[in-house]
Amino acid sequence: MKKVIHEITYTVLVLTFIALFVYLLYPSKTTLALLITGLTTSYHFVMRIIVGHSVDGIMKNKANYHHQWYKISKVEEKIYEVIKVGQWKKYMPTYSPESFSLKHHTLEEIVMAMCQSEIVHEIIVVLSFVPVLAIFWLGEPVVFIITSFLAACFDMTFVIMQRYNRPRIIKLIEKRRDRQVNISYKKQ
């Protein structure tokens, strides 16, 4: 998935530069609309890559999953039941599947990667609304508000998935620890 995202980003950037040249040669409402579309789309793709790499560079998948920020409330659990996260989460893409692989990582490492992924997507949700500032220069508030809202909703699905899955993985970790403690106790 990582390769696909990067290829799409490069393609969008090239198309945006083409739209810029076309607009400079033939300024019109249509070419301006194409340029704005390209710039906004480029922003969303590039911003996601930058945020992901920045958070990875800072956190290095070493989040404290016991921190209050990552706790799930009973109300939140009920919401996840209502929106049936368990049914649709399997259809969502994963940018870096190797980060969540039991072949390469322990359950604790996977939970920490889940926390980091949540933080990445939460930051992206907030930054999805930056293009709304372009309304002051370019107008078209409906376009900027709708695209920002849809982009934020898209990333919220990934936040929801991480928050839905994490307690289940933590329960597995706790069950394994309890089993190890019981085995150690029986050996004494």
Structural class: mainly alpha
Number of H- or I-type helical stretches: 7
Q: Report the count of strand segments.
A: 0
- Low-confidence segments: none
> Could you tell me the radius of gyration in angstroms?
21 Å
SSE pattern, N- to C-terminal: HHHHHHH
The backbone outline, from C-alpha atoms, is elongated
**What helical percentage do the residues reach?**
over 70%
Measured by DSSP, the beta-strand proportion falls in: under 5%
Largest sheet: none
N-to-C CA distance = 49 Å
> Could you tell me the mean pLDDT?
91
Could you characterize the architecture of this molecule?
The protein is mainly alpha-helical. The protein has 7 helices and no strands. Helix 2 runs antiparallel to helix 5 (107-127). The longest helix has 47 residues, at 141-187. It is elongated and about 80 Å long. The N and C termini lie far apart (49 Å). The model has no long low-confidence stretch (mean pLDDT 91).
Tell me briefly what this model is.
The chain is an all-alpha fold and about 190 residues long.
Key terms:
mainly alpha; 74% helix; 188 residues; 7 helices
Secondary structure layout:
Blueprint: H1 2-25, H2 29-59, H3 74-82, H4 85-88, H5 107-127, H6 135-138, H7 141-187
